[in-house]
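Hi all, long-time lurker, first post. I run a small reading group and we've been trying to get comfortable going from sequence to structure in the token notation. Rather than ask abstract questions, I figured I'd post a concrete chain and ask someone more experienced to write out its structure so we can walk through it together at our next meeting. Sequence below, copied exactly:
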Amino acid sequence: MPKPKWNLNTIYISERLQESLRPISRCAMTTVVAPMGYGKTTAVNWYLEERAKAETLHIIRISVYSGNLAIFWKSVQEAFARAGFPLLREYPCPTDAAGGGLLVDDLCHALVGETSCYIFIDDFHLLTDRRASMFLCMLANRLPINVHLIVASRDRFLPAAETVRLGARVYQIGTEQLRLNHTELAIYAHRCGTELSEAQVESLLYSSEGWFSAVYLNLRTLSERGALPNRNSDIYATFTAAMIDPLAKKQREFLAVMGLADEFTIEMAQRITGDAEAGKILSMLTEQNAFVTRLPDGATYRFHHMMKECAERCFLAMEAETRRIYWERFGLWYEQHRQYLHAIAAYRKSENYDALLRVIRSDAGILLASLKPEDVLEALDKCPAETLKAYPFAILVLMRRMFTWRQIPKMLELKALLLSAIEEHPELSEEERGNLLGECDLILSFLCYNDISAMSRLHRSASAQMSRPAISIQNSGGWTFGSPSVLMMFYRAPGELQKELAEMDECMPHYYKVTNNHGQGAETIMRAEALFCQGRFTDAHIELERAYAQVKDNGQINMELCCNFLLRRLSLHTDVEQRYSFAERYAALLRHHDASWINFWSATSAYYHALRGETDKIPEIFSQHRLSAVNMLVPGKPMMEMIENQVYLAQGAYAKVVGRSTELLAVCDGMHYALVALHIRIQTAAAYEMLGKTEEAHALLAKALSDAAPDGFVMPFVENYGYLEQMLAREIRNGLITRIIELGEAAKGRKEESARPPAFAALTQREFEIVTLIAQRLSNREIAEKLHLSEGSVKQYVNQIYSKLHIEGDTRTKRKQLAGLLREKT
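-- Answer (accepted) --
Happy to help. Here is the structure in token form:
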């Protein structure tokens, strides 16, 4: 009888598993969860190949290789581009709910259509950031009917609550569907080229528990040795014995080395191993080994994780110097292909700190942000000081990153090292020496944030010494740390306004010179905001138009958004032409795919509509109070929270405003945010007044008026005049209060003209507020609860309203007539 021909690379998908895979096409998301080696990837790939035979479709395959979000995002961008969807090429990696929502919108818009689309994410368990799984839930909830998401993972990643919320949109495949049963194991063995006895099937099923990889390895051993391995064998020992030990030394070393790569091409394998015949080795391994796979692009290869783990063990058994050489080759390959995160990791392992610092300098520290601070600090601790001193520009990049990570002692330590390096290298030209010292001063200026005098000294010093723009600051990034107001950032104390404006005028041109005009127009915007706060609308408008002229066409979106914020506030008090509607501006910003600009515009919209009392138009992130889900830079956070406070006030959540005030004011005090603190005190005074706490309201208003007086700031009060009107009437009149009341009455008039039909002109703000609540069919008791009034007071207000509007009849008739007047407005 001829010896059976083994075919161990056969793909076997049981009929039972095929049935389990069919519902994928009917669900938004399918999760395939099982331990390593259960054939998750094989099953999904088989399914996708079968679907491709039956219909035209798009397949987007994404493999996860590490927990680093930046590396994963690069894989996502490349996968979509390969599938013919280049929309993510310039898209920054989303880091919060707002960014995720923006990405979901764009993906759904790009993928919707008649053609089925499958997105397959493999090895998702390696991505441990919880935000990633929450994003997939958001995506699955909104995917169009033609798009299907398949996620393979060793661990369950869907929170139980999200699984319930997704309901029928999510389909789950697990170990039970993937493991082989008795019959399937026998069929698989037959297809591999052998007939197992009943006893062998039982023994193999018992030892493997239907685990596909274990069955495969056992059959491999049987094919080579004529007997199944001992049922107590360790799976990794079995794998090594079956898949690696039988190979020639050259092939074993190839596996050990290339197992370190996530994916690789023949060219990369030739460069790393130094073997010109790497292509032949790969071809042989792919034919004979189910754990080495050529990807659908036909040029890239990857090892199964079990192969990678065993190969890594072999690599660790090599001589230390051999390992170092290979890691250095990996580093050089990645560096030359601008895969800087991979290059940094490889050079760290080879301990080639010269090369590591060279990469940091080339990247300008951009991708350093995606690394864990403790990993970078550990590498710096191991890097010899003399090596660091040889790369002064890398030191500058690291100093900037240490500031962002709030590692100030390390930042100052690097500064000392830089100065020492400059001193020890007299051969440096005067120009290069000036550039290094100047940029050092520029970076140190961030330690003096919002102290314009101190920052100005360092900016002037940098400007005097530098002949080129800074390498550690990108002029395309934001300048205000997410704050929609420049004045709120730099107004430190009452009575300092004119001094601060003058210092900004002097300081900013020096900063622009060394940063390629980063933040251009800041000083003009700050002056326009100051004039607005003083109620000088015409002067503010003139300065604002100057600012718009400065920022036009220079790519400084941040500064234009600051202009938009002021323009919207100004429009509530004087006739100015809006450059865009809220919808038009939002649509324009979407094209940049940057969630930070969307958050910025949402803040402008939230503040504007809160001041107008149009709570239904406030963006969801503010109206639903989801700011905690947004990544905010520390310097810009108090401004966003002040705007959220204004939203709470507009929503009538007065106790919430009071409850938040102590903590918000403490933060403002610590950061010297005097103008933000002024707004919060006014908001809190208003909230106390609406709650009937007049003593507390008076104390806060008195403090706010005292702080506002030296610089004549009236508009933070005017913007809240609807809440403060009765309080201000009780105060002793002075010039400031008189001006606030004058502007407040004018603003009230403008608002009433735009918000009410002429029939309601005779009503006060409070009376009209009650009218709108009556129109919502609230009872007097419900109105009293909402406005924190007694039911008797509400009845008095209602009677006054009917009297002023000359409405007569019974209660039902009066309410009907009132509703009719409101409909006229609509």
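A couple of things your group might point at:
The CA atoms of residues 107 and 714 lie 46 Å apart.
The chain is about 65% helix and 5% strand.
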